[in-house]
Amino acid sequence: MKSAKYLLIFMLFIMSGCSTETEEITVSAAASLTDALDEVIDVYNKDHPNVEIHVNLGGSGTLSQQIVQGAPVDLFFSASLEMFNRVVEEGMIDKKDAIPLLSNQLVWIQSKDRAIIESMEEMNKIAIGTPETVPAGGYAKQALTSQKLYDLVKDKLVFTKDVRQVLQYVESENVNAGIVYKTDALQSEKVMVNEELSIGEHDAIIYPVGIINNSKEKDTTNSFLTFLQSNEAIKIFKEYGFNEIDGDIDGSIFSTN
C-alpha cells in the first residue's frame, strides 16, 4: 500500500515536470524593433514563464532571405512591406496569419556635440542602410531621390548592414549625419534629430508581422502574436516612438501572388 502511494507521488511529480516544459520560438525581427521588442517580451514572459523567445535581429531584407532559404523561424516582424511580401509570395506566410501592426517615420540625425548642420554641402559622410537589404536605407534613398539629391550625395554615402549601425556611426562621429527611424533616434543620448535637413517623400513605413507556415510551435507563436496586438504591447511600442497602424490599412496590402 505504501509503495503504491509513493508510486502515485512519483507519477504526479513527473506529470508536473512535463507541464512546465519550456516552449521555444524564434522571432526574426527588424533591428529597429530591438529595444521595444525586448520590453514586450519581458512583459509577455510574466504570464508565460515557460516560453523562451529567441530573437534574430537584422535588416528585413537579410531576414527575409534567411526565411526563404529555410531558416528555422516561427514569426517574422519586418520593417518593410516589400520584403515581408517576398516571404508571402514564396508561400511561407499566409495572408490570414499576417498583420500590419506598426508604423514609423524617417529623421535626420547628427551628433549632439556638433553645430547644427544646415545643408548637404557641410557634410563629407552620410550614413544610410544598404537600400537593397535595409528598409530604412530604401526609404532614405527614396527620400533623397524625391528631392533630386541622391545622385548629388551618393559619393558621400556610407552604407550599413542595418539601421542600428547608422546610429552607431553617427554616435561615434565616423559620419557627419545619417537617416534613421524616429524610434532609433529616441534611443540614443548622443545624437539629436536635425530638423534643418528636410526628409523627402517615401513609401509609408509599415511593420507587418506574420507566422511562418512551417512553424513547429504554431499555438505558442499565435499566443505571442496575439499579445503583440494587445493594448499592453501597443502601449510599449508607442513609448518607443512607434505608431499603431491606422484602421484604413488592412490585410489587403499583402501580396496576392
Structure description:
The protein is an alpha/beta fold and 257 residues long. 39% of the residues lie in helices and 22% in strands. The chain contains 10 helices and 11 strands. The protein has helices spanning 2-19, 34-47, 60-68, 81-89, 135-146, 150-153, 163-171, 182-185, 218-228, 231-239; strands at 23-30, 51-58, 75-77, 98-103, 106-111, 126-129, 157-160, 177-181, 191-194, 206-211, 243-244. The strands form 2 sheets. A 6-stranded mixed beta sheet has the order 2-1-3-10-4-11. It has a 5-stranded mixed beta sheet with strand order 7-6-8-5-9, sandwiched between helices. Strand 1, helix 2 (34-47) and strand 2 (51-58) form a beta-alpha-beta unit. Helix 2 (34-47) runs antiparallel to helix 10 (231-239) and helix 3 runs parallel beside helix 4.
Topology:
Elements (H helix, E strand, L loop, with lengths): L1 H18 L3 E8 L3 H14 L3 E8 L1 H9 L6 E3 L3 H9 L8 E6 L2 E6 L14 E4 L5 H12 L3 H4 L3 E4 L2 H9 L5 E5 H4 L5 E4 L11 E6 L6 H11 L2 H9 L3 E2 L13
Parallel strand pairs: 1-2, 1-3, 6-7, 6-8
Antiparallel strand pairs: 3-10, 4-10, 4-11, 5-8, 5-9
Helix pairs in contact: 2-10, 3-4
